[in-house]
Amino acid sequence: MFELPEIINLVRQLEKTVVRRRIVRVEVPTNRPKFLFLSPDTPAFERALIGRRIEEATSRGRWIFCRLDDGRTLLFGEFGGRLLFHPAGTPIPAKRHWIAEFDDGSHLSLAIQMWGFLGVLTEAEIAQHPYAGTLAFTPLDTSFTEAAFFERLDRHAAGENKPIKAFLTHSPNVAGIGNGYLQDILFRARLSPKRKVSSLSRDERRALYGALRQTLREAADLGGRDTERDLLDEPGRYVPLLDGRAVGRPCPTCVAPIAKIQYLGGSCYLCPRCQA
Ligand SMILES: [Zn+2]
Fold it and tell me: What CA–CA distance (Å, rounded) separates 264 from 118?
C-alpha cells in the first residue's frame, strides 16, 4: 500500500505529466474489484470526469487530490497497486481497474491491489468524508512541529491511550503512515509497537518525532520504497531497514536477530533487544 513518501512522489510525477491536461475518455471496467470504492458509482463517475482539465495535484496523508477545472476534485486514497502514466502511443496494461485518456493521447491507468478509493467530490463532500476529511496532521507539512506532535500525544494519552502502533497508523492522529514505514520509524526511535502512548518519556517522544521526520523525508527524497512502483513504473530507491526480508538477519545496531510478530492486524518487524 502507498504511504506518504510514495504519494508525495506520485504527485510530483502527476504534476509533470497530466496536470493541465484535459480528460477526453474514462473507462471503469464492469469487473472492477469489490474493494475499489468508487464515488459516485459508474457511470456518473465517468461523466463527472469527461471534458475536465486537471488544474493541480496535491497530497495529504495517503491521499492524492487532483483539482478539476469545475471546482471538484478527483481523489485517489488509501490504495496500493499501480497508478501508471502511459505516454501517447505506448501500450496500456491489460490488468487495470480505471483508465483516463488525455487530450494529447496519453493515459493514466490504475490497478488496485487489496483496496482503494477513487472519487470525484466537491469541497463540501471532502470535508464530510470519514477518511479524506480527517487528514489535517501530515508529517513533512510545516504545521507538523514537535510541539504540535507532543500536543496530539498528550491528548491521546489522556483519552484512548492506545499502543503507539495504533496511534501512528490512524489517520485522524497522524496521516500518511501505514504498516510499512511504521517498522523503520519505531526501530529508529527504539520503541516497541506495543508501548502505550502514555508510557513514553519526553526523550522517547523526541526520538519518535525525529525518527518519523527522518524516515519519511529520506524515503520521499528517494521516491518511496523499493517494493513499490512509481507513476513511470520504476521502483523507489528507499530500502527499508526492517521488512519481511530482514527477519532472522542481525539487527543493524546490536546484531540480535530481527523478529516478526503479528500485532494489531498486521506483521511487525523489530529488534527484540533494541526496541523496549
Ligand atoms: Zn538491536
Answer: 26
Q: What is the sign, positive or negative, of the torsion defined by CA atoms of 267, 268, 271, 276?
A: negative
Cell matching residue 33: 474489484
Smallest CA-to-CA distance from 83 within 55, 64, 104 is with 64
* Total-model pTM: 0.96
C-alpha 128 to ligand 1 mean position (Å): 43
Per-residue pLDDT tens digits for 52-107 = 999 999 999 999 999 999 999 999 999 999 999 999 999 999 989 999 999 999 99
CATH for 146-270 is 1.10.8.50
CATH superfamily name and code, 4-134: MutM-like, N-terminal (3.20.190.10)
**Which residues neighbour 22 within 8 Å (Cβ) at sequence distance 6 or greater?**
51, 52, 53, 102, 103
Where are the CATH 3.20.190.10 domain residues in the chain?
4-134
What distance in angstroms lies between residue 3's CA and the mean position of ligand 1's atoms? 25
State the distance from the centre of ligand 1 to the C-alpha of 270, rounded, in angstroms: 8
Distance 147 CA to ligand 1 centre (A): 29
How much distance in Å is there from the Cα of 266 to the middle of ligand 1?
21
Residue 248 Cα, ligand 1 centroid: separation in angstroms?
12
203 CA from centroid of ligand 1 (Å): 19
